[in-house]
Design a protein that fits this description.
The protein is mostly helical. The chain has one domain. Helix content is 75%, strand content 0%. The protein has 12 helices and no strands. It is globular and about 60 Å long.
Length: 255
């Protein structure tokens, strides 16, 4: 959903007075989401891998439509890898402030609302160009800021690129697979020495739940966007962002 899972993990933990599970926990748990994406888009992924490898062997990356899309996704993933490594400390520390999260929720909501108003919404996934895939890739890197939302910001970029809502969401999901896989595996390796007992159990349960909910969310969102706009998510983001700011101002929540 374009409402930021990272933000909600932080918000829920703050509401219940739990310690912030941290960016590493969030990344590892999203392996469940990645598995949901792989299952849902399995046929597309097999085509991309097959055609991508074949085009590499033949020395022609644009050999087929599928190989072209596969390499577009690879190129679109590069920005988030670079920025993720460069700003790792900031992502894991002060960017997880509830002030940052509430601001990101609200600002992205207005950006998405503007995209909904001005977008032409005519292009399908097959019409995505190299420049548009890179634009969505750079947009995806903004999701490193909790509260932005990976799907939210890439759908916004897709709408600005004249894609239909469903096409923007579909390409957004496909683009997220390498990034979610890379971040999840990286953080899993980083915390491998601490995975034992209750901590390991919590991660396993959370990953399974995120996988099941992720699959249902993907199916729901793609079907929903065939007939509806994203304004229900826009209103939700604005209301939640303002609500968090009010609670912070009242001292009910700590940043």
């Amino acid at each position: 959903m374009p409402i930021s899972s990272t933000a909600h993990i932080k918000i829920v933990s703050s509401f219940f007075g739990w310690n912030d599970p941290g960016a590493a926990f969030t990344a590892v748990v999203q392996i469940g989401t990645m598995l949901a994406l792989i299952i849902y888009f399995f046929d597309d992924i097999i085509k991309f891998i097959t055609h991508g490898l074949r085009s590499l062997i033949h020395g022609n990356l644009l050999e087929t439509h599928e190989s072209k899309q596969a390499w577009m996704i690879v190129c679109g993933t590069i920005p988030i890898v670079i920025f993720g490594l460069l700003f790792k400390h900031a992502i894991e520390t002060y960017l997880r402030s509830l002030y940052v999260i509430s601001g990101a929720l609200i600002l992205l909501a207005f950006a998405l609302a503007y995209a909904e108003k001005v977008a032409i919404k005519k292009k399908e996934v097959k019409d995505v160009s190299w420049s548009e895939s890179l634009i969505m890739g750079f947009a995806q890197s903004l999701a490193l800021i909790p509260g932005v939302s990976r799907s939210g910001v890439t759908i916004t970029a897709g709408l600005f690129s004249s894609m239909t809502r469903e096409a923007a969401a579909r390409f957004s999901f496909l683009l997220s697979i390498p990034a979610v896989f890379a971040s999840g595996m990286y953080e899993l390796w980083e915390v491998k020495d601490t995975l034992s007992g209750d901590g390991l159990t919590a991660i396993i349960i959370s990953t399974i739940v995120s996988g099941v909910v992720g699959y249902l969310s993907i199916a729901f969102l793609l079907n929903y966007l065939k007939r509806h706009s994203t304004f229900i998510f826009i209103y939700y983001r604005i209301i939640l962002g303002i609500f968090i700011l009010v609670l912070l101002s009242a001292g009910v929540l700590a940043p």
